[in-house]
Design goal:
Strand content: 5-15%
Helix content: 25-40%
Number of helices: 11
Number of strands: 12
Order of helices and strands: HHEEEHEHEHHEHEHEEHEHEHE
Bound molecules: beta-D-mannopyranose
Length: 370
Amino acid sequence: MTALLRKIGGISGPLVLLAVLAAASSCGRASGETLYARLEGAVQSGSFYYAHQDDLCYGHGWKVEDVQGDSLLRSDVLSAGGDFPAIVGFDLGGIELGSAMNLDGVPFALMRRAAITHAMRGGMVSFSWHARNPLTGGDSWDVSSDMAVASVLEGGAKHWEFLGWLDRAAAFLSSLTLPDGRPVPIIFRPWHENVGSWFWWGGRLCTPEQYKALFTLTRNRLEAQGAGGMVWVYSPDSNASPEDYFARYPGDGFVDILGTDHYQSGPLPQSRDFYMSRLREVLGYTSAYAAEHGKLICLSETGYEGIPDPQWWTGTLLPALEGFPLCYLLCWRNAWDIPGHFYAPFKGSADAPDFAEFRHNHKTLFLSDR
Ligand code: BMA
């Protein structure tokens, strides 16, 4: 950037501004390309990155209280498996209203510090966004109106307000920079689980065209507001047939990674068989598309709540993924606020020995595996 400024030293004010903006956005693009190349590199070496939601901010029975001073060295994954996750996931829900903390009680100031700290340690971060319902004022799960998506698109009653929501997200995301000014590598995954109908952007709540317009509006606006250089994930829930999945696919120009959110639930052994067969079906059609279109695939959310199977990591998860070139998988949060709501091991949990084996498997990449 400084070299560029020197080069254009003789040009008049507005032109300089344009050149600086162009350089800033290409710097953003470059960071997205570097991150994408890193994810692709994992696939080429036959491995994938392990990610955990909210990992440094809280875990099973604990929570960071000192937002400014905590050393952020605590992690359930570290204490059970001996290493930090390579990717830490965060959720922006609440940023749209300018709240000080997100919907799960994580202060945005802590989230920023955790994201930057993790990137400085060599890690990557991902963001989802459980945004409130822009039309009703309810939460993400308020599906009382099928007009919410329509209302934020161009011409809709909430369009301008919604642009303000996107701008708040952009301001936060673009504030995530390393001390040397480089952006934190961000994977962004908005409007997820959009085939099922439990979020206001879900399958029965908008048409495929409206959904795609929401996604493209989001990417265009965030990039125009300085949050360039992110890698974008499309992540329907695994209920999606290939037809559902691609009917709402925003397009190759807007999506870098084809994801899926897929959980195991219900009693063993049936739930294991279903988890594995359904996941393999979805990874089958996403990987086929990705191979043809030069994209990557991931398992954007997964887990088995409370991990009732102590061999889940090597007995179910690894075999389910066998043969598919995914670049990362993310296990959902170990809630500090809801007993039994956890998806990763913690010190002393019954699955911790199996998780340690999973961590040492040649396919899995944690923070130190670089
Ligand atoms: C859900 C649950 C909720 C949480 C939400 C957003 O899956 O974990 O408790 O509020 O995600 O993180």
